[in-house]
Design a protein that fits this description.
Length: 171
């Protein structure tokens, strides 16, 4: 009797939805483990992956948040690019554009952040992306902000936004 448990595995020529992942030991590397496909019998094969994706979160085999942070920034950049016409429209007030950013782009960035172990370099990457989007919406550049000695806090206040760390703390 099978008790209703089924494993959807691929055949020898095609991958399946079910994957296995090898996690590195402390001080080890991916090459140390056996990552060859597992032959289950009847032509069924279980493939090994280096990046495991589940519910929108990506887990690398070394379990470091570097990969996930870079992927989240890329996905948020994609969302910003899709909404670029609205977020840079000069006919809309900056506060209106900032609200659109707050609702449509910003939630993509810290998705899954509850499981991250962030260090200063990760926070710098996330904060700089947030500031870059803010400058783009305000139609200014990094060069202009430095030339005119504009502070990020002044831009945030004009847009009616909070610093990125505030959004991350709310999660």
């Amino acid at each position: 009797r099978s008790f209703g448990l089924h494993c959807h595995v691929g055949k020898s020529d095609a991958k399946s939805k079910t994957e296995m992942q090898y996690f590195e030991t402390k001080g080890g590397c991916q090459e140390d483990g056996d990552t060859t496909p597992l032959q289950l019998g009847g032509g069924d094969v279980l493939h090994c992956c280096t990046l495991f994706e589940c519910l929108g979160t990506t887990m690398p085999s070394d379990l470091s948040p570097d990969t996930e942070v870079d992927i989240r920034i890329g996905k948020a950049q994609g969302a910003f690019s899709v909404m670029r016409r609205v977020l840079t429209d000069r006919n809309l007030r900056l506060k209106t554009r900032a609200r659109c950013f707050l609702v449509l782009v910003l939630p993509v960035l810290p998705h899954g952040a509850e499981t991250w172990t962030l260090c200063a370099t990760h926070m710098t990457k996330l904060t700089s992306f947030h500031r870059r989007c803010l400058r783009t919406m305000a139609h200014t550049s990094l060069w202009k902000t430095r030339l005119h000695r504009m502070k990020t806090s002044a831009l945030l206040e004009r847009a009616g936004l909070q610093p990125f760390i505030t959004h991350l703390d709310k999660r």
